[in-house]
Hints:
Number of strands: 2
Largest sheet: 2 strands, antiparallel
Oligomer: single chain
Shape: globular
Helix content: 55-70%
Order of helices and strands: HHHHHHHHHHHHEEH
Strand content: under 5%
Amino acid sequence: MIRRPQGGARPVPPWGLALGSMFSVQLGSALSMPLIAAVGPAGTAWLRFSVGALIFLAVTRPPLRAIRARDLPTLLALGVTTGLETTAFLAAIQRIPLGTAVAVEFLGPLTVAAVRSHSTRALAWPAIAAGGVVLVTEPWRGDVSPAGLGFAVLAAVGWAIYILLTQRVGDRFTGIAGLSLTTPVAAATAAVAGIPQAAGHLTPGILAAAAGLAILLPVLPFALEMLALRQMTPAAFGTLMALEPGFGVLIGLLVLHQSPAPVQLGGLLLVILAGGAAQRGGRRITTAGRDRLIPPRCRSVPVPTGDQPAGPFSSTTVADRD
C-alpha cells in the first residue's frame, strides 16, 4: 500500500520533474542576458560556474582518493569542454534569439544519438533537424548574425564532445561527486577570458545575480533530473529532453519578447521530432546497465549508469556497484 503525503498532496510526476529541469535551464539562460551585458559571456560563465562549484563543494567532498591516473585526462577534458561550450552558447544568445541558439546547439547531441544507433536510416534525423534549423534561422532574410550562428555551432560541437566525455566519466563518477570534480575545472577554463571581461564590473548586485543564476543552472536542474531518472527509463527521459528547443522558444518569447515567425515554428517542430526519434534508437547498453544518451542539460553532470536508481546526491562509482 502506498502512503500519500499528509494533506493529500500528490508527488510530482517524473515527467513534471524533467519539464521543470528544462524550464530552469532555459530560464537561467534568458535571465543571464543582463549579466552577459555587464560582464560578457565568458564573465557570466565564470561567475556561474564559480558559484556552482562552491555549492557542490559545500554539499559533498570531492572523491579525490578515487581518482586514478587514467581518469585525469578525461576529467580535465570534460571540465574544459564544459567551460568552453557554455561560454560559446552564452556568446550565441547574446547575438541571436534563445530558441534559435538552442535549436542549432541541439544538432550536436542529436547527431551523436543518430550515429550511436548503428542504423543508416537514423542518419536521416540529423539531416531533417538541419533542415529545421535552416527554417529557424531563415538565412535568406539576411538579418541573422553570422557570429551568433558560429558560436551556436561551436556550442553544438562542444555538446557532442561533452556527451562522449561524460559517458566515460559517468562510468567512474556519478551524481554530485562528478560535479564536484568537473565544475571547478569548467570555472577555471571560463576564467581565462571571463576575469578580463568581468574586471572592473563586479559589484554586490552582479555577484548576487550570479549566485541566483547558479541555482537555476546547474544546481536545480541537476537535482530535478536525478529525481526524474529514479522513476523514468533513460530512453523515455532522453525522448522528453527533445522538447528543450521548444522551451528555448517559449522562454525567449515570455522573458525576452523574441517572437518567432510561423516558418520558424515549423522548423522548430522538425528539430524536436528529429531529436525524439533519434533518441529512441540511440541508447548505449553497458555491462553496468543502461544510461541515457543525451545527458543532463545542466552541464558537467556525469550520467548515472546501472539499473539502480540514482538519488540527487548520489556518488556511486563502478567499484561501488560491483
